[in-house]
Amino acid sequence: MIDTPEVIVHPNGCLNRRNAAKYLGLTAGTLSRWASEGTGPKFIKRGRAWYRKEDLDAWLDAGEVTSAAQARARGAR
């Protein structure tokens, strides 16, 4: 059995950085670093960083590959 961390989605459909990281299986530090580098999923900056759940899902979907060769080709970009 896999223990899934509880992720809190606010009524407006947004997640704070900590919950977005849990949702993606990453650390908040990774999301913070990616934000400063201009990579990773889109976010809204209103005091703190907020991530729309649909943007996180779209970012995950954009990374889908059907083979290891396709994944290697994407990594070479």
- Total strands: the figure is 3
Derived structural class: alpha+beta
Q: Could you give the order of strands across the largest sheet?
A: 1-3-2
Helix content: 40-55%
The first-level CATH class name: Mainly Alpha
Number of helices: 4
Helix-strand topology string: EHHEEHH
Binned strand content: 5-15%
List keywords for this structure.
77 residues; alpha+beta; Arc Repressor Mutant, subunit A; 3-stranded antiparallel beta sheet; 4 helices
Your description of this structure?
With 77 residues, the chain is α+β, with helices and mostly antiparallel strands. The protein has one domain (14-75): Arc Repressor Mutant, subunit A (Orthogonal Bundle), CATH 1.10.10. 47% of the residues lie in helices and 14% in strands. Strands 1-3-2 form a three-stranded antiparallel β-sheet. The longest helix has 10 residues, at 28-37.
